[in-house]
Amino acid sequence: MSLNWSQWYSLYRLAEQKWEIIPESPGVYVIRWGVEGKSKAIPRAGGVDEEGIIYIGRSKNLRRRIKQFWTNVVGKYAPHIVGITYREYKFHRVFKPNELEVSWAVVHSAEALKDIEC
Questions:
Q1: pLDDT over 90 for what percent of the chain?
Q2: Cα 76–Cα 95–Cα 104 angle in degrees, nearest 5
Q3: Does 1 score more than 80 pLDDT?
Q4: CB-CB contact of 74 with 80 (8 Å)
Q5: What would the DSSP string read from start to end of 23-65?
Q6: How many CB atoms lie within 10 A of CB 86?
Q7: Quick check: 60 and 110 in contact, CB under 8 A?
């Protein structure tokens, strides 16, 4: 399945704009450490991740799921395990909230999500 990805958007700016640009459709999303559309490298056990990928996920409602991640980033609770991990382990010390970006790809149905590995 070929996916049509959005450009990279600052989560911080999306929160200011009330999330309207993110569709309420099923799809896949990627959260990375980056600024102004340019990724920041993350040292990992197996080498350096030049893409700065923090998380890849899928959802039946992209807007709701990405907002749930962000809710945890700003210190509140929402049901998103990676968002909770970000908050609890104080990842904001390294991955500043204003340096988190998201990109997404819409799929034609929630059923299609089952065919996508994350």
A1: 83
A2: 80
A3: no
A4: no
A5: -SS-EEEEEEEEETTEE--EEETTEEETT-EEEEEEESSHHHH
A6: 22
A7: yes
Q: Which two tokens stand for residue 80?
A: 């998103």
Structure tokens belonging to residue 84:
């909770």
Largest CA distance in the chain: 38
N residues, the chain: 118
Q: Which residue has the tokens 């999306």?
A: 14
Read off the pLDDT of residues 12-47 as tens digits, 9 standing for 90 and up.
Answer: 999 999 999 999 999 999 999 998 889 999 999 999
Question: Cα-atom radius of gyration of the chain, to the nearest Å?
Answer: 14
pLDDT in tens, 85-103: 999 999 999 999 999 999 9
What φ, ψ does residue 78 adopt, rounded to 5°? -150, 150
Asked if residue 31 lies in contact with residue 6, where contact means CB atoms within 8 angstroms, the answer is no
How far apart are alpha carbons 69 and 115 in whole angstroms?
23
